[in-house]
Specification:
The chain is of the alpha+beta class. The chain is built from six helices and 15 strands. Bound molecules: 2-oxoglutaric acid and fe (ii) ion. The site of 2-oxoglutaric acid (AKG) has 8 residues, from β14 and β15.
Length: 314
């Protein structure tokens, strides 16, 4: 009743009012749609974030096989996997008796004992405790003296002078030499080479990796790479692990990236993993998710011009 009276009272203005009401409806509908649009945009963003997260996690979870697990003991003979040598070798100078004629990867736990690995790990801990990068990987190269310090490197022999003798002893250098010799022998036996025609090459370094974010590109250790391309002189790469996957750290598995899937080597203290350095052995290291991972890279060249002597105090 009141409504009818109001309509009558407004009389001629009714169409104007109806228009306003319609406009109001339209505006309300618009704002409802805008509300929906906000929701849709939010959903789209969520979908994008989820897809990116799924992609990023799948990059680290696309492992197809474990070549050697941490818990196994590969002894007394190395476990060897041959792979066809890449065609790249045709573009490199050949050194008979050393250049790979058989390519592949191998793992052995009987060349370096766990006790020796522990001594080397303590050396790495002492050396790297002197400085270290701001995140990601830190390295200590006993040959050149390079030690990660913040975003750069220092030369430990110059920076710490004689004090470095309290950190690295003659016994440490002797152990490095012994281990290097044994590694050279097992590589020569495995790939049928003349070990007198193989030379230690640089860089040869201790690495320490933890889960902190890398601040510079050279502290990013997880990118897929080919050692012959990255380091130039490498013909045979060897990694000596100084800590245990699963108990000292998580993540950080070594991954061979093959066309038909990936193959992992799980680090174990004293484990020696070696392979021909060409593109038949594209690889990466998974990001470390917890703890600290120590390893030494000890590699060999066939080119005497790229050979170096064992590390020693200057
Ligand atoms: O530490 C590792 O397992 C591998 C390191 C590596 O790929 C390299 O030093 O080129
Ligand atoms: Fe590498």
């Amino acid at each position: 009743m009141a409504l009818v009276r109001m309509r009558n009272a407004k009389g001629g203005n009714s169409t104007e009012i109806e228009k306003k009401i319609k406009r109001g409806h339209a505006l309300r509908q618009g704002s409802v749609w805008r509300g929906y649009r906000g929701l849709v945009a939010l959903l789209l963003v969520a979908v994008c974030v989820c897809r990116t997260w799924w992609y990023m996690s799948s990059v680290d979870s696309d492992i197809t096989a474990t070549l050697v697990s941490q818990g196994e003991l590969v002894s007394p003979l190395p476990r060897v996997y041959t792979v066809p040598c890449s065609e790249d070798y045709e573009n490199y100078k050949r050194y008979p008796g050393c250049t790979p004629h058989r390519c592949g990867r191998a793992v052995t736990d009987s060349v370096v004992s766990r006790e020796e690995a522990q001594v080397l790990r303590r050396l790495a801990e002492r050396g790297l405790a002197l400085a270290g990068s701001e995140g990601g990987a830190s390295i200590l190269d006993l040959h050149s003296g390079a030690l990660s310090m913040g975003k750069q490197f220092v030369n430990i022999y110059r920076y710490f002078g004689d004090q470095i003798r309290d950190v690295i002893t003659p016994e440490d250098f002797q152990l490095y030499r012994d281990v290097r010799e044994r590694i050279q022998t097992v590589i020569a036996e495995t790939f049928d080479l003349d070990q007198t025609l193989m030379y230690l090459t640089k860089p040869t370094f201790f690495s320490r990796i933890n889960s902190t974010a890398a601040k510079t590109q050279h502290d990013e250790y997880w990118h897929p790479h080919i050692d012959k391309v990255t380091y130039g002189s490498f013909d045979y790469t060897c990694l000596l692990y100084l800590s245990d996957y699963g108990s000292d750290f998580t993540g950080g598995r070594f991954v061979f990236m093959d066309q038909n899937g990936n193959q992992t080597v799980e680090p174990r203290a004293g484990r020696v993993s070696f392979f021909s350095s060409g593109s038949e052995n594209l690889h990466r290291v998974e990001k470390v998710t917890w703890g600290t991972r120590y390893a030494i890279t000890v590699s060999f060249t066939c080119d005497p011009a790229h050979g170096i002597s064992d590390p020693a105090l200057p």
